Amino acid sequence: MADIMDIVQSVDKVNMPAMNDEDLLELLLHQASARDLVSVNDIIVGMDKIVWHESKGIWDEVQDVNVRGDNKGPATGGFQYERSKRFGGSNAGRHAANRLYSVLGGELPRGSKAQGNEVKGRIPDVLPAWLDQYFGQNNAGVRYDKGEVPMKDLTPTQQKILFLGDKLQTPGLSFQGIGSSKWAFENHNKGLDAQYLLDYEDSMKTFKP
Q1: By mean pLDDT, which of 87-91, 97-101, 103-107, 127-131 is the weakest?
Q2: Per-residue pLDDT at 132 exceeds 70
Q3: What is the mean pLDDT of the chain?
Q4: Rounded Cα distance, 32 and 79, in Å
Q5: 94 and 86 in contact (C-beta within 8 Å)?
Q6: For the purposes of burial, counting CB atoms within 10 Å of the CB of 53, is it exposed (0-12), middle (13-18) or buried (19 or more)?
Q7: Contacts by 45-49, CB closer than 8 A, 24 or more apart
Q8: Could you report the per-residue pLDDT of 172-189, keeping only the tens digit for each?
Q9: What is the sign of the dihedral through the CA atoms of 56, 183, 100 and 48?
Q10: Largest CA-CA distance found in the chain, in angstroms, rounded
C-alpha cells in the first residue's frame, strides 16, 4: 500500500515547494483512508464533529480558563490543541507538529554521539513555510523543534493537516470510528476526563454535517 511518501517521492522535486495546503490535506486524507479502510468522507465528517465539540467551529478559539485563572486557557484552535506547561497545557500542539514533520519524511535529531546512537535528523521533501517556522536549524544544519505551536494562528486547512499528521503518527491509532464519542475520548481527549463522553454526546445534538 502506498503511503504519502511514496506519492511525494513520485512528484518532480522542483514542484515540491509549490504544493499547496489543499493538496497536502488531500494526500493525508487518502493516506489515512487507505491505511485504515475508512472513507475520506467519514474522516472529514469525523473531524468536523470533533471541531464542533471542541470549539463550535471557531478556528481561532482560545480556551477561556486555565490553571492560573487569567482567562487564557492552554487550548487553542478548532481542535483545541493545548499549548505548553507555561499555559497549564500538555504542549499537544508542539507534539502534533513534530508528528506531522515525521509523516512528511522528516526526522528530528535524537540520541548522542558519545553513546553511539546519534541521529542528526533530516528535512522532509515537503515542508510548508507555515510549518517550517516551528523548526529551527543550527550552524551544522541540524533541525530541531522550536517554540510553541498555537493552533489559533493557523488556517482551518492547516489545522486539519496537523490533526491528521498527529493521528497518523500516534501508535496504535485507527481512524475507524472517527467522530464517535468513544473515538474522540480515546484518541483526542486521551481518556483524561470521563465527562468528555457525556459532553461530546450533548454537542452532537446540534452538529450539522
Answers
A1: 87-91
A2: yes
A3: 85
A4: 18
A5: no
A6: buried
A7: 45/179, 45/209, 46/175, 46/178, 46/179, 46/180, 46/183, 47/160, 47/163, 47/178, 47/179, 48/179, 48/207, 48/209, 49/179, 49/184, 49/204, 49/207
A8: 999 999 999 999 999 998
A9: negative
A10: 57
Distance of alpha carbon 102 from alpha carbon 4, whole angstroms: 11
Cell of 163: 490533526
The pTM score is 0.85
According to DSSP, the residues that pair with 145 across neighbouring strands are: 135
Which of 99, 107, 105 lies closest to 162, judged by CA?
99
> What residues does 137 pair with on adjacent strands?
143
What the block records as the C-alpha cell of 134 is 516551528
Residues in the chain: 209
